[in-house]
Every structure is written in structure tokens, then in C-alpha cells.
Amino acid sequence: MSKVFTEITRLSDKDCFYIVERHKTEFTYPLHRHKEFELNFIQNGKGVRRIVGDSVEEIGDYELVLVGGADLEHVWEQGSCHSKDIREITIQFSGDIFGNELLSKNQFASIRRMLKRAEHGLAFSISSIMKVYSTLDDIANENERFVQFLKSLYILYELSVSEDARVLASSSFAHSGRVGESRRVEKVKQYINEHYAKPLKLEDLAGLVGMSPVAFSRFFRQRTGRTLSEYIVEIRLGYAARMLVDSTKNISEICYECGFNNLSNFNRTFKAKRRYTPRDFRAMFKKNKVIV
Q1: Cα–Cα distance between 58 and 51 in angstroms, integer?
Q2: Considering the entire predicted model, what is its pTM?
Q3: CA–CA separation, 117 and 72 (whole Å)
């Protein structure tokens, strides 16, 4: 089985942040992961293809993504971008820089929540990008490291209080649960994660938390913003995407092992949700992987 290239970043043990600005005409770095958090800003990159976990999207003129978690694969590749001056600012930092004691303080509550969500990758809207743009514009050229630290912290805070950050990778692909859920929702989600390959009935799931099917269906949607069936499909697709990337099993095997009972429906649903067929999705990851 192949493994994704694990990057050893340039962040030293004596620094809080590693900050670098680059101007390039193309993206050549392979699919990779690293234990550090990474905030990546891209300007003039319309058409670049971004892969974070099982999320594959084409970016616009401005891009700002926060990636965390040692097992979350990610890459930016050229895609259909023809820009001759792509600007990229990367800020890397360890999750340990704040320490558990500092991160538990009230003033860091929003940053703490954001870092947890970043285990799936977070994409920020253009309005959030514009709020921190001037600071990003300055930070790479700031010579005083303490000022760099303060500006980096300011950026993280401003992004943490934005209400439109969008989670990218599915929880089953990223091997990380979502935060801020009720105990009943968490209990049902845990059961789904453990039994996704088997038939899952609304009546049985509602019974786990002592609710009627109708009441639980409404409760689940209110708490998660999705129907129960939508969530089950998302979890199964996440596991299927992970198996496409990490195993050599054929697509038919993966289909049935992930709880789908019809190959045509699996292919159609996967393409609708992931924008690629299972075969093309696997080929894309294989192309970007580096064997280590």
C-alpha cells in the first residue's frame, strides 16, 4: 500500500510561526501531509485545483484555507490555471504553541474551536479573506518576529470569529469527529461510523436515543443541518474515498463494503458529491502520491 508524502516543515522548535511568501507560475508540490497547522493564502490562482482529504474543488481568484491534523492529505495543483504570477503566503504553526492551559482560556475559545474544525480543512469566504488581507499583505515582509507573531495571532482570531468558514473533508475520510454536537447526535453518529457497512434504519437509530422516528428525524436535521439519510451517505462516501486512496480493492468491492447495494447508484452518487467518478478520483490521488 502506498503512503502519502509526509512533509518535514521548516518550522523550528524555537519559532512560533513559519511564514513564507512565494510568487510562482505553477504548483508542483505533491500530495502531502504534516503534523503542523497550515494557513495557505493564494492570489491570482483561479482554476487551481485544491485537494483536501476527499474534497476536490477549483479555486477562484482568492483562496484561504486552514489545514490541521497529521493525517489530512492536501495539495494544490495547477488545474486549469494559466496565471503567470500566482502569489502564495503560507503560515505554519504547531498546535502546541498555545499550550493546553492558554488554549483553554475564554479569550481563546473561538480559536480552539477553529483549530478543531481545521482537522477537516477549513475554507474561508472572500469576505473573511478581505478582513485579514492587509495583514497577510504585510506579514511576510515584517522583519520583527514578535510583530509577526502578533499579526499571525490577529489573523487566527479574526478568522475564528467568522461565521462562514466551510468544512472541506468528510469526517469519515479525515478520521476526526465534528465538534459542538449534542450527546444524542454524537451517540447516533458513533453508531453510524461503526456500522456504516450495514443497513441502517431510522427506527433503530431513533431507538438508540429514546425518540420516535419522526421526532428524531426532525431533531437530527435541526442539529446538523442535514437529513439523516444525507449524513449516512456522506459517511459512506468518506469511507469509500479513503478506501479508493489507501487500498487496491476494486470499485465494486468498495461499493458493497461501504454500505451501498448498487454499483450504478454508488458511481452516480459519488460523482454527484465528489465531482469525479470513483475511478477518476482514485487515478487523481494516485497521480499526486509519492511513495515513501
Answers
A1: 9
A2: 0.80
A3: 12
